[in-house]
Design a protein that fits this description.
The protein is built from nine helices and 24 strands. By secondary structure, it is an alpha+beta fold. Strands 2, 6, 7, 8, 9, 11, 12, 14 and 18 form a nine-stranded mixed sheet that branches. It binds zinc ion (ZN).
């Protein structure tokens, strides 16, 4: 009895301390980095006669992580489960908990090797008046504050007026967002790797600027069709199967400088049990375009770059039967299916370049509008993950800071969207099905691509940020009854900022396109 009182008091004291410290920790975790940064950029097109024609430069810098440990995976499922006897060992054979945690699918998937390099691939466009750099990274996502870090680190003498960084949303690369660490509650991001990525992006921008030279740009948009290419795993079935490509060649000599391929699909052919670092179908697509395909057509050289589009709702190659170029059909989560998909895309691209419908980009006009915006984050799980420090993106109260950019590059009309946009918001077809949590008329109308007036409109997905799924409010479904009379809640909401995010973003984009308020 005598010892109980002080013990009780000690417990109470610890409890009070915890109550005082936890909110402080949460506040620290929620505090946005680069918190004062706001962008309000308006670079109008040059007056006729002021531009000197295009100059283009491109570069690819590897951002592959180092895998220097071994993973003993008892049941071979690709996931680290120490309770089931799985072990991670450092190069000295000592047990460790450190690993390159692969992003996408479940938490706790350590990389066991490198199949092909991950890249930061940059193209720079310059018309004598404005210089724009666009970098694509083979990552699951790259947060806005990380984009800002890179932008602010670019020396003025490189002359870059604006830098856009877009992720391909690769599901076989290191976690750069935090959700896929050893467990669901541990952050999967390695700070040193994030620094390596930022340095890689900087280097690729610098190299692309150094390589700027007079260029011709040709453009085409075609449809891949869906069969053998892409599937929509959540109703309504809306797929934008447009593939837009830009082919940039040197004005003297005609060598290829860059080939940009914009299409919309999840780079996740290899599925959730793969442990090899790879950039998925993007690898085979880019290699095919640069080096050619076995038995022809010939490659065009230069730097091939993949840009992703509206991939929410959910554009996936999983479960798609893909014929390879010999006529054999592949399915399942393996490198054969992955290669077949990438090469089929490369074949379409090369076909268009060699004998297809490529048109000169109408004029060397380049205008950029870019704006910081705030979107509501009504997802309590996401906010909890942020308060716990698993996801370190910061918030402004219950709002996320992010960015939207609009670029007119001749007849290319490019809009960045900072996440995974449901295609029905891009091309139309939003539904208001029974069971939705917010019934009524669709709100995110007209479709964004209808608001773009250029001949070749594209939505650059995961542009300058990855806020998650951006889904129409009338299709939001957390509470029963569920959509379309289904028993279960659909997948998507759990990795979305919230039900109002897309609506607000749509409004902001509309305002951006209509001109400054
Ligand atoms: Zn996704």
């Amino acid at each position: 009895m005598k010892t109980r009182k002080p013990k009780k008091r000690r417990i109470l004291r610890c409890f009070l301390l915890l109550i005082a410290v936890l909110p402080l920790l949460a506040l620290r975790n929620l505090w946005p980095r680069q918190w004062r940064y706001r962008l309000d950029l308006n670079l109008p097109p040059a007056a006729v006669g002021e531009t000197q024609g295009w100059r283009v430069g491109a570069s690819a810098v590897a951002i592959t992580p180092t895998v220097d440990y071994t993973f003993e995976d008892r049941n071979g499922d690709g996931y680290y489960r120490p309770k089931e006897g799985d072990r991670l060992r450092d190069p000295q054979g000592r047990e460790t908990k450190r690993a390159v945690w692969l992003a996408g699918f479940g938490a706790g998937r350590p990389a066991t090797g490198v199949h092909d390099d991950l890249w930061a691939r940059t193209v720079v466009f310059d018309n004598g008046q404005t210089r724009l750099a666009i970098t694509a990274v083979d990552l699951i996502g790259f947060f806005y504050h990380d984009v800002i870090d890179v932008r602010l680190s670019l020396p003025a003498e490189w002359g870059v007026d604006h830098l856009i960084i877009a992720s391909t949303h690769n599901h076989n690369g290191p976690d750069t967002m935090g959700l896929w660490g050893r467990t669901q509650f541990s952050r999967g991001v390695d700070g040193a790797y994030l620094r390596q990525v930022k340095e890689g992006i900087r280097q690729s921008v610098q190299e692309a600027v150094d390589r700027l030279q007079p260029a011709e740009i040709r453009i085409a948009s075609l449809s891949t069709g869906t069969e053998g290419f892409v599937r929509d795993s959540r109703p309504p079935e809306v797929i934008d199967d447009t593939l837009t490509l830009l082919h940039c060649t040197a004005r003297s000599g005609g060598a290829t400088l860059a080939t940009l391929v914009h299409w919309s699909n999840h780079p996740e052919v290899l599925g959730g049990h793969n442990t090899q670092v790879t950039s998925d179908f993007c690898h085979y697509l880019r290699e095919g375009v640069e080096k050619g395909l076995a038995g022809g057509p010939e490659g065009v050289g230069g730097v091939a770059i993949y840009w992703n589009g509206a991939i929410g709702g959910l554009m996936t190659p999983l479960g798609v039967k893909v014929p390879d170029r010999r006529g054999e059909t592949h399915e399942g989560e393996n490198f054969e299916t992955c290669q077949a998909l990438g090469e089929n895309l490369a074949e379409l691209v090369l076909g268009a370049i060699h004998e297809g419908p490529m048109q000169p980009l109408s004029s060397p006009s380049l205008s950029i509008r870019a704006r910081t915006v705030f979107i509501p984050s009504g997802n309590p799980l996401l906010m909890l993950g942020m308060a716990l420090g698993v996801i370190q993106r910061g918030s402004y109260g219950l709002k996320f800071r992010t960015e939207i950019d609009h670029v007119r590059l001749g007849s290319l009309d490019l809009l960045t969207v900072p996440g995974e946009l449901y295609p029905e918001i891009a091309v139309g077809g939003i539904e208001s099905p029974e069971g939705g949590d917010f019934p009524g008329e669709p709100l995110e109308v007209p479709p964004l691509k209808d608001l773009l007036s250029g001949e070749h409109p594209i939505i650059l997905g995961l542009g300058n940020d990855e806020v998650g799924y951006l889904l129409p409010q009338t299709e939001w479904d957390v509470k029963p009854p569920h959509l379309y009379g289904r028993r279960e809640q659909p997948y998507g909401e759990i990795v979305s900022p919230g039900p109002q995010a897309a609506t607000v973003l749509h409004r902001e984009i509309k305002a951006l396109l209509e001109g400054w308020r």
